[in-house]
């Protein structure tokens, strides 16, 4: 006899989304209500003025995960908040442009850091590429701005690697362009409205970062960034060598990393699958 | 259309016969039987012995499946077999068997990727439309999402598979391999209470299990040497059940975490769990809790479809056959290495 396949019931079929609860700290009175900026798999990012009415800050909250054993959950959250804070503090101390750490409570799962003005490179770069296409400018010409941006990215990443930190998730969404500080224009200007690629590179989201000086780890960081460029801004891919040139000059030992990058590229993250 | 599926990439020999009645109608399982080669406690299955098992059971199983399905060789449209990935010798045994049937019955062959077989059967049974797939078994650990005619691997185990980690720990404890080592660990873990500290190795969307295995093996040796070991906080006696409990809680938390990251990345709220480890109830429960928080749902199947079986090979093979895919006799080889993303999925939009 033919037995029709009976589809088993899905184990959970709840369609309503329950918004994650605010961390307790954001329920206290402040000048402006907390604003949810992004929600990733692990953490929620809020903008808040809880610390001082005049000082906006970014509050990264790692809510507890109900699926994890409570002991494991507390252990992981604590470890990750502290690791991220340590990395940020180290970068800051060594002059790598990252947000400053203001406050944290690892047992409650939050980390309060400097609010960075500006926009992420991904948005600015796509806007710039779009405008150039609309203006009908040929690819390969009038690229000084982009070349300059790639150089700044390479230097910023190199500086971070030079102090013994690898980011773990370098994409153009994790690179901010902060407006140049007043008075310190460094010969840059943004008056003509063309300067959307202007600004200081600030590295953000160190949730997957670690302290490492291994060339392999550094090369993987660069490889991830290359891939991110390839998949989100194919038209800017040709200028990756500008980034790598700047990277090569940024710290002692950078050239070894660039050699290693060639190996990593060959291998990809593709592993031949056994069994 | 009717297809027979032959699976033997690891220690299970499976034969299944499926019928696709027509567009819009669900597939019908006509028969789905398997025979498992179990090594004695404390040992794993060796390729040589497993291949021998498959060779000696192949004809019997095919005959029985045909009888149960009440079909004759004339009703069969194509013969589907596992091309890979898997263990070499068992794969070869089944490939030889498939070629024999092809010549005997004068039917065309379809070589199927084992992982794609799991995914397609899971989708068919559960009705999950476009889920993120967690494929977890003794040989594979992958987080997969479909995009542009390929099942793309977003995350995977960098060393041993999660099921291999569990199987090998079962060997350390010398618990039975029947019906499956992972099943026996699951039963023991239900009695565990104390969570011991184990490494937690997640890197982005990838994870690693070999260090966890080494650590839990050391803890098992410690426990053997000191049976009166007590938890310093609760003062409870630590047992092998606690070791199994700790291992499960840790590795499943890792799997759920990488799955959640992939879901956030591709913007999906459905998860489908396939593969032998997918029949673990604790993993399904944890995945359910995660999916609920994201406003989504989990789809899982029972052991008939989770654990390696012939019907999934028949199903995936028939789906490909209908799009015109054939494996000529001269090319009806098998391979130990066959990545999920190598298959061109032209039957999906």
How would you sum up this structure, described in words?
- The complex is a heterodimer of chains A (275) and B (349).
- Chain A has 275 residues and is of the alpha+beta class.
- Chain A folds into two domains: 24-114, 2-Layer Sandwich (Phosphorylase Kinase, domain 1); 119-267, Transferase(Phosphotransferase), domain 1.
- Chain A has six helices and twelve strands.
- Chain A has helices at 70-93, 121-135, 144-162, 215-232, 240-248, 254-267, and strands at 3-4, 12-13, 35-39, 44-52, 55-61, 101-105, 110-114, 119-120, 165-166, 175-178, 200-203, 210-211.
- Chain A has a five-stranded antiparallel β-sheet with strand order 3-4-5-7-6, with helices on one face. In chain A, strands 8-10-11 form a three-stranded antiparallel β-sheet. Chain A has a two-stranded antiparallel sheet with strand order 9-12.
- In chain A, a hairpin with a 2-residue loop joins β4 and β5.
- In chain A, α3 crosses α5 (240-248) and α4 (215-232) packs across α6 (254-267).
- The model of chain A is unreliable at 1-19 (pLDDT under 50).
- Chain B has 349 residues and is α/β, with parallel strands linked by helices.
- Chain B has two domains: 2-120 and 306-342, ATPase, nucleotide binding domain (Nucleotidyltransferase, domain 5); 130-303, ATPase, nucleotide binding domain (Nucleotidyltransferase, domain 5).
- Helix content of chain B is 42%, strand content 19%.
- Chain B has ten helices and twelve strands.
- In chain B, the strands form three sheets. In chain B, strands 3-2-1-4-5 form a five-stranded mixed β-sheet, sandwiched between helices.
- Chain B is globular, with a radius of gyration of 21 Å.
- Classes of the chains: A alpha+beta (275), B alpha/beta (349).
- Chains A and B meet through β1, β2 and α1 of A and β3, α3, α7, α8 and β12 of B.
- β2 of chain A pairs antiparallel with β12 of chain B.
């Amino acid at each position: 006899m033919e037995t029709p396949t009976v589809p088993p019931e899905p184990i959970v079929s709840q369609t309503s989304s329950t918004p994650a609860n605010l961390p307790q700290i954001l329920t206290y009175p402040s000048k402006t209500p907390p604003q949810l900026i992004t929600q990733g798999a692990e953490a929620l990012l809020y903008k808040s003025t809880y610390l001082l009415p005049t000082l906006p800050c970014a509050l990264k909250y790692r809510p507890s995960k109900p699926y994890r054993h409570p002991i494991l959950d507390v252990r992981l959250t604590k470890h990750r908040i502290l690791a991220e804070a340590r990395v940020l503090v180290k970068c800051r101390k060594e002059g790598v442009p990252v947000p400053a750490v203001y406050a944290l409570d690892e047992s409650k799962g939050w980390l309060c850091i400097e609010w960075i003005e500006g926009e992420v490179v991904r948005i600015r770069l796509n806007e710039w590429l779009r405008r150039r296409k609309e203006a009908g400018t040929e690819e390969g010409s009038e690229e000084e701005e982009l070349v300059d941006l790639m150089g700044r990215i390479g230097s910023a990443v190199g500086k971070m690697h030079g102090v013994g930190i690898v980011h773990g998730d370098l994409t153009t969404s994790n690179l901010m362009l902060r407006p140049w500080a007043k008075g310190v224009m460094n010969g840059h200007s943004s008056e003509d409205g063309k300067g959307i690629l202007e600004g200081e590179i600030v590295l953000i989201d160190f949730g997957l970062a670690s302290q490492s000086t291994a060339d392999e780890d550094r090369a993987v960081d660069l490889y991830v960034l290359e891939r991110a460029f390839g998949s989100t801004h194919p038209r800017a891919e040709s200028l990756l060598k500008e980034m790598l040139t700047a990277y090569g000059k940024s710290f002692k030992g950078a050239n070894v990393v660039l050699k290693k990058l060639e190996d990593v590229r060959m291998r990809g993250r593709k592993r031949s699958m056994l069994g | 259309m009717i297809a027979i599926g032959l699976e033997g990439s690891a220690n299970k020999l499976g034969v299944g016969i499926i019928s696709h009645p027509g567009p819009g109608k669900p597939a019908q399982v006509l028969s789905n039987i398997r025979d498992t080669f179990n090594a004695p406690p404390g040992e794993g299955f060796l390729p040589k012995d497993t291949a021998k098992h498959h060779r000696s059971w192949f004809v019997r199983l095919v005959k029985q499946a045909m009888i149960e399905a009440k079909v004759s060789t004339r009703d069969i449209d194509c013969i589907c077999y596992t091309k890979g990935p898997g263990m070499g010798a068992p794969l070869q045994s089944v490939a030889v068997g498939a070629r024999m049937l092809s010549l005997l019955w004068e039917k065309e062959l379809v070589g199927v990727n084992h992982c794609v077989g799991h995914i397609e059967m899971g989708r068919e049974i559960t009705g999950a439309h476009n889920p993120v797939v967690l494929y977890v078994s003794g040989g594979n650990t992958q987080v997969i999402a479909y995009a542009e005619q390929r099942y793309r691997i977003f995350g995977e185990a960098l060393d041993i598979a999660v099921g291999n980690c569990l199987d090998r720990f079962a060997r350390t404890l010398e618990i039975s391999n029947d019906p499956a080592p992972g099943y026996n660990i699951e039963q023991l873990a239900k009695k565990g209470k104390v969570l011991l500290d184990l490494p937690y190795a997640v890197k982005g969307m990838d994870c690693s299990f070999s260090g966890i295995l080494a650590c839990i093996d050391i803890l098992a040796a410690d426990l053997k040497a000191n049976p009166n070991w007590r938890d310093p906080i609760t003062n409870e006696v630590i047992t092998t059940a606690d070791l199994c409990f700790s291992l499960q809680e840790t590795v499943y938390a890792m799997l759920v975490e990488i799955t959640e990251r992939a879901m956030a990345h591709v913007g999906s709220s459905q998860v489908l769990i396939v593969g032998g480890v997918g029949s673990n109830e604790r993993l399904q429960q944890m995945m359910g809790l995660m999916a609920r928080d994201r406003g989504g749902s989990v789809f899982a199947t029972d052991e008939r479809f989770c654990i390696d079986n012939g019907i999934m090979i028949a199903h995936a093979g028939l789906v490909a056959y209908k799009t015109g895919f054939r494996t000529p006799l001269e090319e009806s080889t098998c391979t130990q290495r066959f990545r999920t993303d190598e298959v061109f999925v032209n039957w999906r939009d």
